[in-house]
Write a structure and sequence with these properties.
It contains 15 helices and 26 strands. The two termini are 44 Å apart. The protein is an alpha/beta fold. The chain is globular and about 70 Å long. The protein has a domain of 95 residues: ANL, C-terminal domain (GMP Synthetase, Chain A, domain 3, 2-Layer Sandwich), CATH 3.30.300. The longest helix is centred in the N-terminal third of the chain and has 18 residues. The strands form 6 sheets. Strands 2-1-10-9-11-12-13-14 form an 8-stranded mixed sheet.
């Protein structure tokens, strides 16, 4: 980023902070609705909703929550207008919102309920059919679907008690691919700060009057920031699709979105579709996982567009950085940290490393979580003096730009040499027959660990394995080359579009 762009971002961040930093995020919907009551808030296949109608529905739902009483609402609903209403209403009513993964098994949801003991549960009709046993007599299981009146009332002075901005407002459960899912506790200040930080970075793109295409599941933190808070704080329009399917995507693109946040697998799908009309989109941002060069390069060749790669995690509300530069970035380079976020890269001894060296990334800022729910031992390991251990290896260049090297838990150590699986996976993905790749470490008596590769190929023809080894030999040091390459029809995925390495380890 140029100094001019950095100055613009800093100034915009300061202006936004003065306006919003001390506001509870539950009040943000009303603020935006009063500014632009007749602006379209949401467009879906079923309907078009203004900010006026949305806020009206939110206040009605918030009144219902307040009437039932309690402190928290667990939400299990697919993408839809009702998700937005219930989610924002819980916050307006001063309650903690707990959105859960709609793909979880009933017993997994029951475990979360036993852990957080929500006051209210709201389910979509699909989820209600799926989860038939709730034995908690002290929990209100609400089925709410108020019809829209013919005339939406003007804004009333509806007073809701919202807690201090530093109190917990969200409990978001991680995917749990390495164990039991943990509840990330975020305050209003955490999420509002990150919305301001992200909005200020997007202003460097000339961000104004946007139309966000919401395609990712709304229960995920990446989608909540990119498809709820960023649109609302900027009074923009949301184009909502129910699920990631080709027909739904094409219908969404026909509504002429201007910004598109997605995961690598979704950008890969657009490459397979090849001819989507993306002309209206000014900004493409990829997050939630590393973007393989193959997908990034293919997207550029097919559509002539650059994908802005970002980085974050639930514990950071979630965005830490994304690049705002017009050049073609190197692999896994995710730009400078957002305004107000400090980064420190440490070695195994806890000492700061030199520029360009790889170490564990620690971050600090107003967006960093309060901690994990009911997990003091975990919190003491990951939070130290306001700094969060991201668990990711990274390096920083002279311009202050971050490059993410991979998860600490995925690191492979072979005879004392470190192997970052993302580097090897990126090479394997360069083969035209490969569409997914994952590298894990297997214990070895003489070497400590050896890298084992799993690839999903369009066709497992004779000689493919040899070609993959040749590709690795051309680009990787000998100790990084997989000792075994297992070719499959597909690899297991989790709900965020990431390869589920835990299942591969257990295979």
């Amino acid at each position: 980023m140029s100094k001019k762009l950095e100055d613009n971002e800093r100034g915009f961040f300061q202006d936004l902070s003065e306006e919003y930093a001390h506001m509870h995020i539950g009040l943000l919907v009303g603020q935006s609705a009063r500014r632009f009551p007749d602006r379209v808030f949401l467009v879906s296949k079923q309907r078009e909703v203004t900010y006026r109608e949305f806020y009206f529905r939110v206040t009605r739902c918030a009144q219902m929550f307040a009437k039932h009483g309690g402190t928290s609402v667990l939400l299990s609903m697919e993408n839809g207008f009702d998700f937005y209403v219930a989610y924002c209403a819980a916050l307006l009513a001063g309650m903690v919102i707990i959105p859960v993964n709609t793909f979880l098994h009933e017993q997994e949801v029951v475990q979360i309920i036993d852990q957080v003991k929500p006051s209210i549960i709201m389910l979509s009709p699909e989820q209600r059919e799926k989860y038939k046993l709730f034995t908690h007599s002290d929990i209100n299981d609400i089925d709410w679907n108020e019809p829209v009146p013919e005339k939406i009332e003007d804004f009333e002075d509806r007073s809701f008690h919202v807690p201090p901005v530093d109190d917990t407002a969200f409990i978001l459960f991680t995917s749990g691919t390495t164990g039991t899912p943990k509840g990330v506790m975020l305050s209003s200040k955490n999420v509002m700060s990150n919305a301001i930080q992200s909005f200020a970075r997007m202003e460097t793109f000339g961000f104004k009057d946007e139309r966000f295409l919401a395609a990712l599941p709304l229960f995920h933190v990446f989608s909540q920031m990119s498809a709820i808070w960023l649109p609302i704080i900027s009074c923009s329009t949301i184009i909502l699709i129910k699920r990631i399917e080709r027909k739904e995507l094409l219908e969404g693109f026909a509504q002429k979105p201007t910004t598109f946040f997605a995961v690598p697998a979704l950008f890969g799908l657009l490459c397979i579709m090849r001819t989507c009309n993306l002309d209206s989109i000014k900004l493409f941002v990829c997050g939630a996982d590393a973007l393989p060069d193959k997908i990034r390069d293919g997207f550029a060749q097919l559509y002539g567009r650059i994908i802005a790669t970002g980085y974050g995690l639930s514990e950071a509300s979630p965005v830490i950085s994304f690049n705002a530069e017009s050049f073609f970035p190197t692999s896994n380079m995710v730009g400078k940290p957002l305004e107000g976020i400090e980064c420190l890269i440490k070695n195994e001894s806890g000492e700061k490393v030199q520029l360009g060296e790889v170490g564990l990334l620690w971050v600090k800022g107003p967006n960093i979580m309060q901690g994990y729910f009911a997990a003091p031992e975990e919190n003491s390991k990951i939070l130290v003096d306001g700094w969060l251990n991201t668990g990711d290896y990274a390096s920083m260049d002279e311009q202050g730009r971050l490059t993410i090297r991979g998860r600490e838990k995925d690191l492979i150590i072979n005879k004392g040499f470190k192997i970052y699986p993302q580097e090897v996976e990126n090479i394997l993905m360069k083969h035209p027959a490969v569409f997914k790749a994952a590298v894990i470490g297997r214990d070895n008596e003489s070497s400590g660990q050896v890298p084992i590769a799993f690839v999903a190929a369009k066709e497992n023809y004779p000689g493919l394995s040899d070609e993959l080894y040749v590709l690795c030999n051309q680009s990787l040091a000998a100790y990084k080359i997989p000792k075994k390459i297992i070719i499959l029809n597909d690899l297991p995925m989790n709900y965020t579009g990431k390869i589920d390495k835990k299942r591969l380890v257990d295979a």
